[in-house]
UniProtKB/TrEMBL annotation:
Residues 23-98 form the O-methyltransferase dimerisation domain. Keywords: Methyltransferase, S-adenosyl-L-methionine, Transferase. CDD domains: AdoMet_MTases. This is Methyltransferase. One of its GO terms (molecular function) is methyltransferase activity. Gene3D superfamilies: 1.10.287.1350, Vaccinia Virus protein VP39 (3.40.50.150), Winged helix-like DNA-binding domain superfamily/Winged helix DNA-binding domain (1.10.10.10). Pfam families: Dimerisation (PF08100), Methyltransf_2 (PF00891). InterPro entries: COMT-like, COMT_C, COMT_dimerisation, SAM-dependent_MTases_sf, WH-like_DNA-bd_sf, WH_DNA-bd_sf. GO terms for biological process: methylation. Residues 121-334 form the O-methyltransferase C-terminal domain.
Length: 356
């Protein structure tokens, strides 16, 4: 009930607030709608021209009425259009769910709607109260050990991380002066998607991908597809123990946010130990503003803050501000020299650090 003295503006603000809360409360349902669309192959089945819901249902071996309801929900979410009653086409955003596209996000959706990821979120309040990692208590082991025990899930994670890196891989080679370096080691580089893009754009550079054996499982295929196998070495190892020497640039993308400050310092310190004179550590991660609500937040609509909570419940890491990055670099024997937004790959930034 609206207060009798409320103005029209108050009433409008109240309605807007209620709409916001409703959308947020239904957010997990929207995510599972995406998951169902990917699992059923809806975008592939609709194809490039409008199709009737009944035909999509038949190809998906699904019931016509529930399929129509799913397609209309996807239309409401902006991923499909209903071009005529019970006839649907794919929007540009929806096309990103097609697994055959080079810029597909289908694996990314599968992973981040995966029950293994979501279960720990059910205990977010516990993690906030205690600071403990919910995943560890739910599954009895840490996230990355759990991945190592499940090859299918590990492969799905690697594919999701590759898709998550595709935008950065397109932007990074042209946003940073790689040409002044002779060799780059991608620390925690996974399947090599990012480093392959750098090497392809800069033929004078040699490369190394450092990751666990599980993380490197698809890296040889990535390098072979790009004709880069002769210019890139794959090193199975643990960046908590050592980082291989021999490079003058150490690239660390979407790694530090997985870990606590002490662990991030250890990773960076190992980079510092093998950094030659004139060498550089290039960290590629989002940088949170010092105060929430500044224009920097507009780049991703607050998703980085959700990522921060995901780090809390699933792995124990965190997203960081510039001040936070300066501190972990300082503790590792490095000096942070610049932070530059990565154009075309918001909310990522290029964080440069040199030997202190």
């Amino acid at each position: 009930m609206t207060h009798p003295e409320a103005t029209d503006a108050d009433t409008a603000a109240d309605a807007t607030g209620r709409d916001l809360i409703a959308r947020l409360a239904f957010g997990s349902m929207a995510a599972q709608t995406l998951r169902a669309a990917v699992r059923l192959g809806v975008v592939e089945l609709v194809g490039d021209t409008p199709r009737r819901a009944a035909d999509v249902a038949a190809d998906a071996r699904a019931e016509p009425q529930p399929m129509t309801r799913l397609l209309r929900a996807l239309t409401g979410l902006g991923l499909l259009r209903e071009t005529a009653p019970d006839s649907f086409s794919v929007t540009p955003a929806g096309a990103l769910l097609h697994p055959g596209r080079p810029d597909s996000l289908a694996s990314f959706v599968r992973m981040f709607t995966e029950p293994t990821i979501i279960r720990a979120w059910e205990h977010l309040d516990d993690s906030v109260r205690t600071g403990e990692i919910a995943f560890d208590s739910v599954f009895g082991t840490d996230f990355f050990s759990h991945l190592a025990q499940d090859p299918d899930l590990s492969s799905a994670f690697n594919s999701a991380m590759s898709q998550a890196s595709s935008e950065t891989a397109a932007a990074l080679p042209h946003a940073f002066d790689f040409g002044r370096f002779t060799a780059v080691t991608d620390v925690g580089g996974g399947d090599g998607t990012l480093l392959a893009a750098v090497l392809a754009a800069h033929p004078g550079i040699e490369g190394v991908v450092l990751d666990t054996a599980e993380g490197l499982a698809e890296a040889s295929d990535t390098m072979a597809r790009g004709g880069l196998a002769g210019r890139c070495s794959l090193v199975a190892g643990d960046f908590f123990h050592t980082v291989p020497g021999g490079s003058d640039l150490y690239l660390v993308k979407s790694v530090l946010h997985d870990w606590t400050d002490d662990q991030a310092v250890t990773i960076l310190r190992h980079c510092r130990e093998v950094l030659p004179p004139g060498g550089l550590v290039l960290i590629v991660e989002p940088v949170l503003p010092e105060v929430v609500g500044t224009t920097a937040d507009a780049a991703d609509g607050g998703i980085t803050y959700l990522s921060d909570l995901n780090m809390l419940v699933n792995v124990g890491g965190r997203e960081r501000t510039r001040t936070d990055f300066e501190e972990v670099c300082r503790r590792a024997g490095l000096t942070l020299t610049s932070v530059t937004p990565l154009a075309g790959a918001a909310p990522f930034a290029l964080i440069e650090a040199v030997a202190a």
